[in-house]
Amino acid sequence: MNASKFVVESDVFCLFDGSVPALSLLVMARRQVGSTRRVGDGGSFPFAGALHSKSRSSPLLSICLVLVGACLLIGYAYSGPGIFKSIKEVSKVTGDYSCTAEVQRAVSVLKKAYGDGMRKVLHVGPETCSVVSTLLKEDETEAWGVEPYDIEDADSHCKSLVSKGLVRVADIKFPLPYRAKSFSLVIVSDALDYLSPKYLNKTVPELARVASDGVVLFAGLPGQQRAKVAELSKFGRPAKMRSASWWNRFFVQTSLEENEAPSKKFEQAVSKGSYKPACQVFHLKPLH
Questions:
Q1: How confident is the model at residue 97 (pLDDT cuts 50, 70, 90)?
Q2: What integer is the mean pLDDT of 152-177?
Q3: Looking at residue 115, what DSSP letter applies?
Q4: CA 126 to CA 123: how far, in whole Å?
Q5: Can you tell me where the transmembrane regions are (predicted)?
Q6: Once rounded to an integer, what is the mean pLDDT over residues 13-29?
Q7: Around Cβ 101, how many Cβ atoms within 10 Å?
Q8: Looking at the predicted structure, is the pLDDT value of residue 77 above 60?
Q9: Strands of 57-115, DSSP E
Q10: CB of 219 within 8 A of CB of 242?
Q11: Which CATH code, of 3.30.2160.10, 3.40.50.150, 3.40.50.300, 3.40.120.10, is assigned to 99-284?
Q12: Sign of CA dihedral 84, 88, 89, 95
């Protein structure tokens, strides 16, 4: 019989029998157990063993709780509109939208809509070097670009396009350095959203002046955020995402008309292909 069992049996004997020898035996047994605990626990008080036992089990309990919580979180995230989808939606709203990247995805659709109108193309907007490079890869297409902002951080390829005269750095709030009808098609993206109506009244008609077949305007959708805080110094002001009704009123006020024929071809090509516009696309007639 071990010590702990002896204590219990002696305790029961003392309670029911009440004899002195049993009581003495109980006291002696308790002293032995107590002295053993004190030696093992380094001289702590009698309940230290119980406390240490609890402390030793607490890390295991914490690990179990963490694992259970992780399983519940993962299950909730993948069971429907969970946290990961919410994060994705937030990043979509607050992310950096680029209609210039949209232009590059829409080149094949634009060719179906404008045909020979893609023979001489001018792109106006930030990151125009990437658009010009994409257009130059197309058969029977010449391309030029106007970069409205500084290109100090541009790569060597972009600087090469500038040195060849294919890309110019120019403030589009002022008249463009081209003659009327210099290009068959003018495409503008990520530039007009940063201009106030005061400058839009001059810039958009100027784009239509240098085009012979039309102007394609890519504009952001309301609710999109374009410029990050670090880019405000480059663009000068936050982007203003205007609705389609606002743009249509603006076109009427500035005597600009919709270019209906290529606009319908563009919509038909979009409906049949995989490209789905993430920006507003307007097709305008040139000024003659």
A1: low
A2: 91
A3: G
A4: 9
A5: 60-78
A6: 39
A7: 17
A8: no
A9: none
A10: yes
A11: 3.40.50.150
A12: positive
User: Which of 4-8, 159-163, 225-229 is predicted least confidently?
Assistant: 4-8
Q: Quote the percentage of the chain above a pLDDT of 90.
A: 51
**Most confident listed range (39-53, 59-73, 102-116):** 102-116
Average pLDDT for residues 135-139, to the nearest whole number? 94
Indicate the residue type of 267: E
Of 177, 112, 108, 167, residue with least CA distance to 143: 167
Contact 102, 278 (CB under 8 A): yes
Alpha carbons within 13 A on the beta-carbon side of 210: 25
Of residues 144, 106, 138, 105, the one with CA closest to residue 122? 144
Alpha-carbon gap, residue 137 to 115, rounded angstroms: 16
* 132 close to 166: Cβ distance less than 8 angstroms: yes
pLDDT digits (tens, 9 = 90+) for 259-272: 999 999 999 999 99
Which of 6 and 201 is assigned the larger pLDDT?
201
Torsion of CA 157, 150, 232, 131, to 10 degrees: -40
Structure token digits, residue 243? 């609705």
CB-based contacts of 157: which residues, under 8 Å, 6+ apart?
A: 129, 133
Structure tokens at 74: 């993962």
Tokens 């035996």, residue located: 25
Residues in the chain: 288
Name the residue ranges covered by the structural domains of the chain: 99-284
Q: Three-class SS of residue 224?
A: coil
